[in-house]
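HUMAN: Can I see a protein plus its fold?

ASSISTANT:
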Amino acid sequence: MSAETTARLRLARAAEGRPRRGTPEGTRERLIAAAAEVLNRDGYFGTDSNAIARAAGYSPATFYKHFEDKRAILLAAYERWVGAEWRHVAGTVRAGLPAAEAARHLTTWVIAHHRRWRGLRASLLALVGVDDVVRAFYLTQRRRQLEWLAELRRPAAAASAGREADALRLYTFERACDAIANGETAALGLDAERFEALIAEQMAGAWRA
C-alpha cells in the first residue's frame, strides 16, 4: 500500500468520528446531547467545556459559538430533560387510560427516567443552593411544571385543587420516585416494588380527585 493511500485511509477514518457539517441548530443539538451524557457520567465539577465539545466531535471554539460556558449548556440539557419528562406525562394523561393503570405506568417510567439521568439531575441540584442563576432557572422550571399540571387537570378539578395541592403532589411524587432511583430504598432495606406500588396508589387517588 502506497504512502498516499495510507494517508487517505487515515483521513477517512478520522473523518468518520466527526459529525458532518450541518445547520447551527443541528450543531447545538449535538452539543446538548453530548453534554447531557458527559454531565450525567462525570458530574458538573468532573468535566469542562472542552471535554463536552470533544465528546460531541467539535472543537472548543465551536462550543463557544453556541454556549457561554459549562453552566449554560447544563441548563440547556436539563431543560431538555424536563421537557421530555413532561411530554411523556402529558401523552399518558391524554391517552385516556384508567387512573390506576396510568399511575402505574407513569410511576415506573419516571423512576427509570430519573435513574437513567440521576447524574445530570444531581449536577443541577448541586448548584441550586450556591448559584443564583441556576436557582432562578430551577424555579422557572418548577413554575412551568405547575402550569402543566393545571393544564392537564380537568377544569373542575383544577379549580378545586389549587396550586398548593398540585405542588405538594408534585414534590411528594418526585421525591418518592427519586428515593428508588437513587438507591435509598435499597439502602434502607425497603421493598422497592411495594414502595413503588404505594406511590402509584397515591398518584391514582390524586388523579381521580
Q: What stands out?
A: Confidence is low (pLDDT under 50) at residues 5-19. The first helix runs from residue 3 to 16. The two ends are 75 Å apart (CA to CA).
